[in-house]
Specification:
alpha/beta, 4-stranded antiparallel β-sheet, 10 helices, 14 strands, 34% helix, globular
Length: 297
């Protein structure tokens, strides 16, 4: 669906994208992760034909990016594109008109799209009366109203409470069942873990790691992460090194990579004589992978 090959973009002497290459299959949810300044926004602007690349190729459904491809893309930016005093129905009608839908098609699509984001019962409600979660769903509806083949969701759940976030996640999963291709940017790593078929980690304008979560886990030589709290940090690290265990700090948390899962009894035996306030065994998660590849260790 989306094919980007050796994409480059610079502003003066600053290289924002450096031979960026990524391919997204039809119906796939692709998570593009990266810190601020890594090149995510520039990439999105080029995909949407709002910015020209210096070099490289980019196609959407085998068409080179142009004014024509804008109609097969839907984008829900981080900031809601909504008119607060207009109703949900009026907002969607306005954007459907911009995309060139005739009156009959607009009426049909507005109702269908509101139903798809569970807002049909709020069709006449002004946006200013909606909750934050409802507004985010309506913002996504704006991206869907013209039935695009590729939907770009930029930080779709930022600032939402847990319940509203789950509602948006369910909406994104439903897009996949409908065959819609999704490019998702997010700083919430658990969001990418739960939703994405494939994940690309972007740093300095390059994809430095890519694959499914299970494939990315192969980048870390551990089957589990042991997180501990202890006042005897140096002794715990020294003991771990005797068993060939790698230690890491995640924030202020001391952790050890376990090549093979260990039962709690065996862990306590190996660290005999060292007092722990707490011990947690965790699966290798996207947070561990992301920190490892972006910090270059």
């Amino acid at each position: 669906m989306l094919k980007i090959t050796n994409l480059n973009k610079s502003y003066g002497t600053t290289k924002v994208l450096q031979d960026l290459t990524l391919h997204i299959k039809p119906g796939e949810i692709y998570g593009l992760l990266g810190a601020n300044g890594s090149g995510k926004t520039t990439t999105i602007n080029i995909i949407c034909n709002l910015l020209k690349a210096d070099s490289g190729d980019i196609t959407i459904n085998r068409q080179k990016v142009s004014e024509a491809t804008k109609k097969i893309i839907g984008i829900a930016p981080q900031e809601n594109l909504l008119y607060k005093t207009l109703s949900c129905e009026e907002n969607l009608n306005f954007f459907a008109n911009i995309y060139g839908l005739n009156r009959e098609a607009r009426q049909k699509q507005v109702q269908k799209t509101l139903a798809s984001v569970n807002l049909l019962d709020r069709a006449k409600s002004p946006v200013e009366t909606l909750s934050g979660g409802m507004r985010r769903r309506l913002n996504i509806a704006v991206a869907l109203v013209h039935q695009p083949q590729l939907v770009i969701l930029d930080e779709p759940t930022t600032g939402l409470d847990v319940e509203a976030r789950y509602e948006v996640w369910e909406l994104i999963r439903n897009l996949k069942t409908q065959g819609v291709t999704v490019l998702l940017t997010t700083h919430l790593l658990d969001e990418a873990e739960r939703l994405c078929d494939k994940i690309g980690i972007l740093k300095n304008g390059q994809i430095i790691a890519e694959g499914s979560l299970s494939e990315l886990r192969n980048l870390i030589p551990a089957s589990e992460v042991l997180v501990v709290q202890t006042q005897q940090t140096e002794q715990a690290i020294a003991r771990a090194q005797e068993y060939g265990l790698i230690h890491k700090y995640y924030g202020n948390q001391l952790a050890f990579w376990l090549p093979q899962p260990l039962e709690l009894k065996e862990i306590i035996t190996r660290f005999e004589g060292i007092e722990f306030d707490s011990i947690s065994r965790l699966p290798v998660g996207l947070e561990h992978i992301y920190l490892e590849v972006t910090q270059g260790s």
